[in-house]
Amino acid sequence: MPQKIGYDPAQVSLFAVPLEAMVAADAEVRVIAAFVDQLDLPELSFRAVRSDGASAYAAEVLLKIYLYGYLNRERSSRRLERCCRLNVEMMWLTGGLKPKYHTIADFRKDYPKQLKAVFRQYVLLLKDWSLVGGERLAVEGTKVRAQNSTKRNLNAAKLQRNLERIEAGIPAALEEFARRDTQEGEDPTGGRQARQQSTLDRLASLRQRKVERQEQQRLLAASEDKQISLTDADARSLLVKGTESLVGYNVQLVVDAEHKLIVHVEATNVTDAEALSGLVETTAELLALPRDVSTQVLADKGYHSGSQLAAVEAQGMVSFVAERRLSTRGQRSTEVYGAEEFRYDEQLDVYHCPAGKQLNTTGGWYTRTDSTRRHRTYSLPAAVCRNCPLPVRQLRQHFGAGRAAGPYAEPVGVRRGGRPEPPAAKGLTGGVPPAAGTNGAPLRHDQAKLGGLLHPSEGTGQGRRGV
CA dist 258 to 130, 167, 412, 424, Å? Predict the structure, then answer.
């Protein structure tokens, strides 16, 4: 079989091939160029290049480089600089310009709000093209680790333990210094003096750490947060599963069901149970959704919170959020009574147990010692329970002798009262299917920007830095 032979690199071609002919007609780099060219960058607060002084790179050129790297997972400014020199598509996109890595990095650092506005413009463009319906939204999130170690994330308990260790270390250091100071005889090698100086340095370090911890305690007491991070100030310790936690962010995605397109992304430092209403409100504002149209909001059980469900309802939307199931601690479901078996009567403000008996409340609210949430107790006389005709079963933990309910029992009860499921949500155990190809695992970088949520019939899934 004859061997294929390429061109000699030193050979001079009679007809030079232009860059336009080297980029495919359907290449995504052409979409980037067309999108940026139609933007009014001065209106988005990008600074224009001054007519005097040294030549500078236009904002549209650097924005094209940034978007190209975003879509092709080239996040390093040095790698983007290399792409400008070696990548044919990047040469076509920039017109042969080759900005240095520092220029690219400064562009990302100087225009964070403007870049957020660019992504919003892209979502609005998709809406103008009728690719975003706004009739059904699905919410999902994944936790991302920050560049802040667990040791450098502090709360009141950690600071107190650190201060106690420092307080115990200072007397020990003073005692060590006094013991060495009273030693008789001179050390001809000077080792005694060096050891004393080491003890003095240790003592000074302990005192300095004590001052720093006291200042951190003061800052923590003055802030609304219950923790501070020393490396990444915005990162927070988030519970992942059980008692496992990480210091980072909870990245939230809002996906439109029309064509499975991500319409909003936000990096938060709160749990899923506290994020739903804010995400829905921001998305509704971005898409200009009318309040007279009942947009459906789908989410898994991690987002189930009475206050959040009530806030979504107040925005004129209908939520379909899987209900949390309390742990039975090894017991079968037939051995316990759960919250879902108690029916709430909104008009009478009472609960009905599985036997049909009415649980009343005194109307008072209280706060548990292990929680900041308010609760109200609904209970029955003990004699009624002893004479119950139903099989003897235990109440799940957190219910005690009665039924403890939060101030948002009404919206939770409405959802439990038989609201019909939307067509796309039928058969979903968690309310929202996992992102395409992830089977519920955390999203990869490319899926977080281009992926979408699969309809149950289309896949095998079980089922403030905003963009």
Answer: 9, 61, 27, 11
Query: In whole angstroms, what is the distance from residue 164 CA to residue 150 CA?
Result: 19
98-146 tens-digit pLDDT = 999 999 999 999 999 999 999 999 999 999 989 998 899 999 999 999 8
Residue 362: band (very low, low, confident or very high) from pLDDT cuts 50, 70, 90? confident
Task: Return the DSSP state at 437.
Answer: T
Distance, CA of 257 to CA of 299 (rounded, Å): 13
Phi, psi at 141, each rounded to 5°: -145, 160
Q: How far is CA 429 from CA 333, 414, 440, 461, 463, in A?
A: 17, 19, 13, 11, 5
Secondary structure (H, E, C), 229-248 = ECCCCCCEEEEEECCEEEEE
Which among 111, 88, 87, 68 is positioned nearest to 22, based on CA atoms?
88
DSSP per-residue codes, 18-68: PHHHHS-TT-HHHHHHHHHHTS-TTTTTPPPPPSSSS----HHHHHHHHHH
Dihedral sign for Cα atoms in the order 81, 123, 437, 308? positive
Query: CB of 352 within 8 A of CB of 378?
Result: no
For residues 342 and 351, is the Cβ–Cβ distance under 8 A? yes
Q: Quick one: pLDDT at residue 253? A: 93
In Å, what is the CA distance from 413 to each residue of 277, 363, 425? 18, 18, 19
Beta carbons of 143 and 251 less than 8 angstroms apart: yes
Q: What is the pLDDT of residue 381?
A: 82
CA neighbor of 322 nearest in space, from 296, 299, 338, 354: 299
What is the pLDDT at residue 281?
A: 92
Looking at the DSSP bridge assignments, the partners of residue 155 are 227
CA distance 273 to 147: 24
**Residues 337/394, Cβ–Cβ less than 8 Å:** yes
More confident residue, 425 or 246: 246
Place of tokens 């500078």: 56
Judge contact between 378 and 359, C-beta under 8 A. yes
Rounded CA separation 274/302 (Å): 10
Pairing of strands 343-345, 136-145: unpaired
